[in-house]
Every structure is written in C-alpha cells, then in structure tokens.
C-alpha cells in the first residue's frame, strides 16, 4: 500500500452503543497504520438481530440503510466477524427474499469492499506486526461467525502472535460456540448459559488475564458469566489489544 | 391390554413441551450429559480424521449435493422410473400419502402372511410413522434388531440420536436394562452378564438369534433407492440388517420418496460420504444392494412402500427443500453444542439435532408450539454446515424457518415480540432514529442511575432472561457516535 | 383402487411442489465417475485396511489356496464348514477329516446356524476402504450361507482388487443390472452402539479371514 487507504468504519450498533472503546481503538489502530478513517454517520446496524429472529422483511430497510451509508467507500472495515459476515452472507439473501434485485446487486457489489478488521489488516494492508504492545497473558476465542461466516481463518492469531510482550496461550475447545447466538441467549437461556459457562471455564483454566475475540457480542455473553462468577479473566476485543502500544498502552 | 413388546405406550413424543421448556431436563441429567459428551466427542474426532483422508473430500461433498439435487428436482420422473424398475424385478410397489396410510398397508401385508411378529432393521422412517405402535395395535409384535434400538426398546425408552439411538445410555445402564428385560421378551441375558460392551453385544446376539431364525416377515427402511435399477440399498454394521434382508420369506421396506438417487454409479459418491460422515469409518461393515427378487436367495416376496408424509411440503419450499438432501448420517448432531448438552429427546421428534430442527417443522408444519420452537433451538454457530456431506445450509434454513414462524405467529395479530421488533427495525433503518434512541436510553439510564455503573442491577422481563445468570455491562457514558462528532468538532482528539 | 389414487396424488404433489423448477432441469454433477484413487500399493492398502477392521489376511500363491483356507478354518476353531456347490476345486484341501456341507439351496437358517464356518469367493474388492464385494455369483453362494455361520473365510484374487469404491461400483453395475443381490463386507460385523466403543462381532460372522491370492 503506497497511498493512504481510505477506510469507512462500520462501527456496528453494539460497539457504537455499548462498547465504544472498541470502535475508538479501531480508529486509532487504522490511523496509526496510515489509513484515512471516516465514519459515515448514516450507518446503523447489519440487521442481524432482526434477520436471525425471523423478522426478515423488517430487516430490508436496515440493509438498504447499510448499502446507502457505505456505497461510496473504498473500503468498509468493521471490528466484528459476525456483523461483517451478516452483511456479506445475509444482505443479498434478504434483498432476494423481498424481491429487490437492484438492492441485491448493490449489496453484492458493496460486499466486495467490506472487510472484517483482521482481514483488512492482513489482506489489504499486508501487515501482521501492527506495532502493538500488550504485556499480558491472553487467550483467544475465534467466535463462530468470524470463522464460519466471515471466514477470517487464522488472521487474528497471526496478528496476536506479533504483539510485543504478549503471552498468547491456547484456549481449550476454542472452536466450540460460546452459546450467545443473538436472541438465542434469551429464547433458550438455559442452553445458552450452559454453553457460555463451559467457555468461561475454559478461559479461566488457561490462567489468562484477558479473553480476546473479534466479536463483542460473544464477549458480552462470556464476560457476563465471568463477571457473575467473579472470575479473574477480563474480556477484551482484538482491536483494543492491537491499538495498544508501548507509548500509549491500554 | 397385555403388551407384546416393551416399547412405551404412548405414541412417540406426544405431549412433549417445546424445546426451551424441555431443554432444562436434558441439561440437568448429569449421566446423560456425560454419556453424550463422551460419545459425540469420540465420533466427531473420528469423522474429522476419516474426512481428512479423502484428498478431494470437499469435491465429493459437492458431488453428493448435486446428485441429491438432481434427484429431488426431477423427483416425479425418478419415482416413476424406480417404480417401473422395481416392479419389473418382482417387487410390489405401494404408495402412502401419510403415516396412517403407510401403517395400514404394512399391517395388511403382515396380516396376509398370518404373522404375529416381525423383525425390524433400524429405520428412521418407521419411527417417524409410529409403525411399531400400529403393528402392536394390530396384534403384531415388532422386534427391533439393531443393538441400540434393542436397548431403547427394552428400556421402554425413546431414541435420542439418528445413528446411535441409545447414545444417552452408558454401559452400566445397558447391563441393567438387559438383565431386567431380556427374559420377559425372549432369551434371558446370561447370569454372568457384565457391563463390558463385548459381553453386552454377545447377549444381544443370543437374545435376537432365535427371532432371526424363526421370523417370517422383516421390515426395513432404506438408505437409497436407485431409480434406474430399482435397487434398494441398506447400510449397516452389525449384520442384523443382513439377517432381516436375507432370512425371512417376506421383506417390507418403507422408504421416503426423497431417498432416490438417479443412477447406480451415483452410489460411488454417496457410499463414500455416508460412512465417513456417520460412524467415522472408511466403510461400514455391511452394505446390502437388493434388486428385485432372486430365486432361491433371500425373501421371495418383497414390498416397497413409498411414503410422502409431508415430504412434498418440504419440496415445495425453495429454500427449505435442501433439507431433503439429508442422508441421515447424523454428523450435524455430533458437532452440535446444543444437541451435545440437551440430548435428543428435547427436540420432540424422531429427528433431533440441527437436521431435526429444520426437517421436523417442515414435515409436520408450524401449527404446534413444539414445531415452532425448533428453528430457534440453535445458536447458529454453523458447525453443522461444515460437516454436512451433502452441504445442506442448515443455518440458512433455520433462519428462513424462523421467518416462517414469525409470519405464522403474526398472521392474525401482532405479538409482544413482533411489536418490539418493529420498533427495533424502525430504529435501525435510520441513523437519526438510532441516535435519538441512544440519547433517550441514556437519559432513562441516567434517571434510573444505571449509566456509569459497572454492571446492571436486576431488571424486569425480558432483561431478566439475560440477567438471571449473566451480568451486563452498563451502557457507556458516551456512544461512539458522540465521541466521533466531538472529535470532528475538534473538541477532543 | 386406493393404491393408484395415492400414487397419482403423490406424483401430482411432487409436480406441484416443483412448480418453480424449469422443465427438464438437469443439475450438473461435477464428478468424473469410476476413477481410481492413487495408492502407493493397492494390495498393501487392502491388507492394511482389512487388518484395521480386526479381520485377518494371508497372502498365498494360487497353488496354496486350499491349504491356506483349511489353516484359516482351523485357526478360527471351526469344526464344520459349508461351501457353495460351485466353489472352485482345490480351494479347500487337507480338510478331509471334518464335515464339509455343500449348499444345494435347501439348508434352512437353523441348519446353517449349526455350521461353524463358510468359505466363499468374491467378485471385486476396494483397497482404500478394505471392502470385499460379493454378487453371490460363481463360487460365492447364496446370501444366507455367508451370513449365518459365525466364521467366514473369503478368497480374494489379487486381480479382483481395485483401488477404491468408484472402480468397484463400476464393476458391480453389470451384476445389479442382471438383478443379482450384492453384499459389501468391510471386516467382521461390528457395533459402536454402546458408548461409541467399537465391538467386533455381533450378528454377522464374527470372524473374517481373507485369503489373498497373488
């Protein structure tokens, strides 16, 4: 990358409202790596909460808002495998379902420029060492939608391995779902909590100070269980570790 | 009424509560949890190894998907072709629109042979139609001969897995069931029965052998029917299938209309996918291919009952029809974190797990709360999609069916949930409204003293569903949107 | 007749359900059929996989088949054996002292249950999965004789072993088109129904010995 890539930040509604620190960290990280970051204020959400609860027709205006907000962007980057995965995988499907061919085409065209944060860093900027410093013991949960919908592969681990001072330890049964599942967490709370408790136990068993993931929705669920059981593991988003430096530590 | 077999009295799954209410019992059953964790972990590791041995596994899965799609998209022609091939080879073909019709056909055929008992090969479809119950009502004892089905039947129990119906039982439980029950229904278990699986298998061999040797009628399902040759394919492990397919005079096979593959050559794909996905073996011990009636070898009278029972409803759904590709391998159950914890019974259907959650509500429709709950019995983690040998997009179909459930529930009047989600949709369609809601909830939060707290206190429903077991971070003091605006105005870097 | 009404109705439902599918829709299957699977050695792979199933195997020259079969029967502890009427002469030698029952098709299941072992040939085998395929034609006998006795000695000629299932299916197609039953055997009978723990030997022959003629 020679010129300064222009990135439109897709903050996601959950980060915007509940975890602004993650979106701020994403801005700082991308700017540090030489990107020009904008925040198209017309953006709202990927609509996944509606779609995955069965309100598919109701998600269509949200898809339209997403496409309009980001249409002019060179790159759209979001710190969430789940929300990015939803845009790429579900938006064209929703447009087809409501019979809007134009929206489907627009969505598919836009989606070629929509990246999850670790994908953008590794594939577009071509970096794995982002100059981060985080001298803590950390364990990584890959999150289902990052792996299986967005398809980020091992990019987050490649980025984490290059972080200065980090002690990255394997999470047992890392590929197992944490049980969040959007409204699954309240429609089937017993199963959701059972799955999340196993994940929380795995995290505690590593002796890590931080449980890192690329999705704050999963971390909100696992973190809620860790907090309730007064466990010493703190959930943290990947962007916040990558944004942390020796000069400006988190 | 004196019972002919140890199966439970009620038709399967009648009166079951919906999944969210049935799940806690499964979660709380520590023995079942331990049995399932052990079994599913074992089998999914084996599956992964066997799949990785095939260099072009993903191409094979694509071919499997395409072969099943080809069959389904031309199903009427292939059914007629299969019927003709079977008829010419000496098989009597029957058609059944629903469970009752299939059961009537089978009962009449068994009565015509003046048999008071039948031996059965493990078959999902005969469970689906409650055939054993129909036979028993007609005075015919139906003996399950698959080891796991025998454990379930002798245990007055219900199957909880497609492939290993007694997966919820451990060896000690099996020993106790055999000791208590075998003697009441045939040859008793040996006095020195232990809980060694080999010893238990030997007891099953001895118990069932007399039934194999005397039976006049056998009943099977079918893994595949080849349209061009009319060949019925039965995949098994123990040899009980071969016994049923070979020794009795009459063989009645009940087969779903979706089980067709177009050509015999297609089996090279299906029969490499199935055992590796299912039991995690390179090949299952025995596969039988029966084409018509062979003089002097095997049953001299054969019937095939082609069953609809809701399958054409599934076929009519352009998204949902992919579920009919299923070859009943159960790989999706074995990787499912929900199934692993809750077990099969909570799904209220003979088809549990991810495939059950998409197949059952399509086969039975959405009129009962049990069936409406099934598409939501998943965290949408997607592990099932990756292992499906015929690439059924299970997560996408779950989401599609959730949409149909919402349509069904809101067809006449809105529900509290639909009103709430209409508000969410309206908020999320416009950044201005989202901003207002963020501002509004911040004000409410401040008024309630929530903002700035480390975590939220007790709150009413629906927040209580979350907060019963989990904390929730309190809303941030400033949204990202506000932070950005402030930065843009140069107020703070 | 109600049967034909059900048939017509189901076919009509199928056609209605497929209303969106263009007539004559042919889904392309991206697959080349009947291809060999590359293996370092077909016979070695076959042997490894047979052994992996817990079955046994001996490699012999054509002249030694009869002795190998008899040795296998003795090794399994068989006291009696049934053979198909057309088992090649010489495939059972040195067995004169004990009963050999030649199946003429009239042995009942109970008769067969009283016999310890069976010797048959086979049509084709797939190495990659260790699968032996019988079409119950020449030298293989009807299905019941290779099922009810508890020990099965199966003669497999080296030239009948192909790499994998696709080639085997191609060979078997002719048998199926003649209406012959086909049985695939991959090791002895087995179950994993109790705690997914594999147990070799349930209802089918609990012991399988393969005599591989090279």
Give the SSE layout:
The complex is a heterotrimer of chains A (250), B (493) and C (214).
Chain A: E1 6-9, H1 13-17, H2 20-32, E2 36-38, H3 48-51, H4 56-70, E3 75-78, H5 81-97, H6 101-111, E4 114-116, H7 117-124, E5 137-140, H8 144-150, H9 155-161, E6 167-169, H10 184-187, H11 189-205, E7 210-213, H12 216-228, E8 234-237, H13 238-243
Parallel strand pairs in A: 1-2, 1-3, 3-4, 5-6, 5-7, 7-8
Helix pairs in contact in A: 4-5, 4-6, 5-6, 5-8, 11-12
Chain B: H1 19-28, H2 30-53, H3 57-73, H4 75-88, E1 91-96, H5 99-112, E2 117-120, H6 124-128, H7 131-137, E3 141-144, H8 147-154, H9 171-185, H10 197-214, E4 217-220, E5 224-226, E6 232-236, H11 240-246, E7 250-256, E8 260-261, H12 267-278, E9 286-290, E10 301-307, H13 311-316, H14 331-335, H15 337-342, H16 353-364, H17 369-373, H18 383-387, H19 394-409, H20 416-428, H21 431-447, H22 463-467, H23 480-488
Parallel strand pairs in B: 1-10, 2-3, 2-4, 4-7, 5-8, 7-10
Antiparallel strand pairs in B: 5-6, 6-9
Helix pairs in contact in B: 2-12, 3-12, 9-10, 16-19
Chain C: H1 2-17, H2 42-52, E1 56-60, H3 65-75, E2 81-84, E3 100-103, H4 109-113, E4 117-120, E5 124-126, E6 131-134, E7 151-157, E8 161-162, H5 165-177, E9 182-185, E10 190-191, E11 199-200, E12 207-213
Parallel strand pairs in C: 1-12, 2-3, 2-4, 4-7, 5-8, 7-12
Antiparallel strand pairs in C: 5-6, 6-9, 10-11
Output the keywords:
heterotrimer; A: 250 residues; alpha/beta; Rossmann fold; 2 domains; 4-stranded parallel β-sheet; 8 strands; globular; B: 493 residues; 6-stranded parallel β-sheet; 4-stranded mixed β-sheet; 23 helices; 10 strands; elongated
Please tell me the total number of domains of chain C: 1
- On the 0 to 100 scale, the average pLDDT of chain C is 95
Number of strands of chain C: 12
Q: What is the H/E string of chain A?
A: EHHEHHEHHEHEHHEHHEHEH
Based on secondary structure, the structural category of chain A is alpha/beta
* N- and C-termini, Cα separation of chain C: 59 Å
Largest beta-sheet details of chain C: 6 strands, parallel
Mean pLDDT value of chain A:
96
CATH structural fold name of chain C: Rossmann fold
The biggest sheet of chain A, with number of strands, parallel, antiparallel or mixed sense and barrel status, is: 4 strands, parallel
Overall SS class of chain C: alpha/beta
What is the quaternary state of this protein?
Answer: heterotrimer
Number of helices of chain A: 13
């Amino acid at each position: 990358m020679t010129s300064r890539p222009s990135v439109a930040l897709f903050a996601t509604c959950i980060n915007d409202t509940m975890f602004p620190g993650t979106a701020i960290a994403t801005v700082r990280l991308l700017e540090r790596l030489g990107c020009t970051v904008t925040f198209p204020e017309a953006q709202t959400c990927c609509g996944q909460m509606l779609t995955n609860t069965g309100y598919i027709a109701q998600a269509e205006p949200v898809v339209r808002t997403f496409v309009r907000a980001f249409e002019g962007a060179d790159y759209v980057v979001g710190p969430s495998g789940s929300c990015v995965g939803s845009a790429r995988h579900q938006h064209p499907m929703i447009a087809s379902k409501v019979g809007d061919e134009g929206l489907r085409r627009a969505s598919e065209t836009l989606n070629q420029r929509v990246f999850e944060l670790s994908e953008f860093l590794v594939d577009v900027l071509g970096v794995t060492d982002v100059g981060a410093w985080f001298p803590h013991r950390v364990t990584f949960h890959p999150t289902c939608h990052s792996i299986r919908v967005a398809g980020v592969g091992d990019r987050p681990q490649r980025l984490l391995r290059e972080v200065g001072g980090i002690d990255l330890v394997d999470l047992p049964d890392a590929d197992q779902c944490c049980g969040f599942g959007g409204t699954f967490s309240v429609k089937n709370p017993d199963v959701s909590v059972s799955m999340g408790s196993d994940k929380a136990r795995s995290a505690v068993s590593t002796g890590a100070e931080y449980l890192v993931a690329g999705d704050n929705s999963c971390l909100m669920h696992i973190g809620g269980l860790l907090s309730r059981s007064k466990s010493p593991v703190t959930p943290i988003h990947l962007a916040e570790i990558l944004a942390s430096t020796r000069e400006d530590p988190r | 009424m004196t019972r002919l077999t140890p199966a439970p009295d009620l038709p399967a799954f009648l009166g079951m509560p919906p999944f969210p209410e049935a799940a806690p019992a499964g979660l709380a059953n520590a023995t079942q949890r331990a049995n399932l964790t052990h079994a599913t972990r074992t089998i999914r590791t084996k599956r992964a190894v066997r799949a990785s041995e095939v260099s072009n596994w993903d191409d094979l899965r694509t071919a499997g998907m395409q072969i099943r799609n080809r069959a389904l998209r031309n199903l009427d022609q292939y059914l007629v072709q299969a019927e003709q091939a079977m008829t010419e080879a000496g098989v009597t073909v029957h058609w059944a629109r629903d469970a009752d019709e299939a059961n009537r056909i089978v009962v009449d055929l068994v009565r015509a042979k003046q048999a008071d008992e039948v031996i059965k090969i493990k078959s999902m479809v005969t469970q689906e139609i409650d055939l054993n119950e129909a036979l028993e009502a007609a005075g015919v004892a139906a003996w399950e001969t698959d080891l796991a089905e025998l454990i379930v039947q002798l245990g007055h129990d219900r199957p909880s897995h497609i492939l290993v119906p007694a997966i919820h039982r451990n060896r000690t439980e099996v020993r106790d069931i055999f000791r208590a029950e075998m003697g009441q229904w045939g040859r008793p278990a040996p006095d020195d029965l232990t809980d060694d699986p080999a010893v238990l298998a030997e007891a099953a061999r001895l118990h069932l052998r007399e039934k194999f040797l005397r039976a006049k009628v056998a009943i099977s399902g079918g893994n595949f029917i080849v349209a061009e040759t009319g060949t019925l394919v039965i995949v098994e492990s123990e040899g009980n299938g071969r016994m049923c397919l070979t020794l009795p005079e009459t063989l009645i096979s009940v087969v779903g209309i979706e089980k067709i593959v177009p050509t015999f050559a297609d089996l090279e794909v299906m029969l490499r996918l199935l055992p590796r996905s299912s039991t995690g073996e390179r090949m299952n011990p025995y596969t039988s291919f029966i084409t018509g009636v062979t003089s002097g070898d095997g049953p001299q009278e054969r019937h095939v009952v082609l069953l609809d029972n809701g399958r054409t409803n599934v076929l009519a759904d352009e998204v949902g029809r992919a579920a009919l590709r299923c070859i009943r391998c159960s790989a999706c159950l074995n990787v499912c974190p929900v199934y692993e914890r809750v077990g099969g019974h909570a799904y209220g259907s003979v088809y549990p797990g991810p495939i059950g959650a998409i197949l059952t509500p399509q086969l039975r429709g959405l009129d009962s709360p049990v069936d409406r709950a099934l598409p939501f019995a998943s965290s949408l983690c997607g592990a099932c999609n990756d292992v499906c040998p015929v690439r059924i997009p299970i997560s996408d179909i779950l989401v599609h069916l959730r949409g149909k459930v919402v349509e069904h529930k809101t067809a006449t009047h809105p529900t509290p949930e639909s009103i709430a989600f209409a508000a969410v949709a309206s908020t999320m369609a416009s950044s201005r409204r989202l901003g207002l809601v963020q501002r509004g909830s911040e004000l409410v939060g401040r008024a309630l003293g929530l903002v700035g707290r480390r975590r939220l206190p007790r709150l009413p429903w629906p927040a209580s569903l979350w907060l019963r077991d989990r904390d929730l971070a309190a809303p941030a003091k400033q949204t990202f949107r506000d932070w950005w605006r402030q930065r843009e105005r140069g107020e703070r870097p | 007749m109600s049967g034909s009404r059900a048939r017509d109705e189901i076919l009509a439902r199928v056609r209605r359900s497929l209303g969106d599918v263009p007539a004559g829709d042919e889904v392309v299957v991206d697959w080349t059929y009947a291809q060999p699977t590359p293996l370092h050695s077909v016979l070695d792979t076959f042997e490894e996989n047979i052994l992996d199933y817990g079955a046994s195997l001996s490699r012999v020259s054509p002249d030694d088949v009869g002795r190998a079969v008899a040795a296998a029967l003795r090794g399994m502890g068989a006291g009696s054996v049934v053979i198909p009427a057309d088992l090649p002469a010489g495939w059972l030698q040195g067995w004169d002292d004990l009963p050999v029952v030649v199946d003429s098709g009239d042995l009942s299941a109970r008769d067969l249950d009283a016999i310890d072992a069976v010797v048959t040939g086979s049509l084709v085998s797939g190495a990659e999965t260790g699968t032996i395929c019988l079409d119950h034609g020449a030298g293989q006998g009807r299905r019941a004789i290779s099922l009810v006795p508890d020990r099965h000695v199966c003669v497999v000629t080296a030239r009948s072993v192909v790499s994998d299932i696709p080639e085997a299916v191609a060979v078997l197609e002719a048998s199926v088109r003649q209406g012959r039953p086909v049985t695939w055997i991959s090791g002895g009978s087995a179950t994993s129904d109790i705690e997914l723990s594999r147990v070799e030997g349930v209802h089918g022959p609990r012991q399988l010995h393969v005599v591989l003629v090279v």
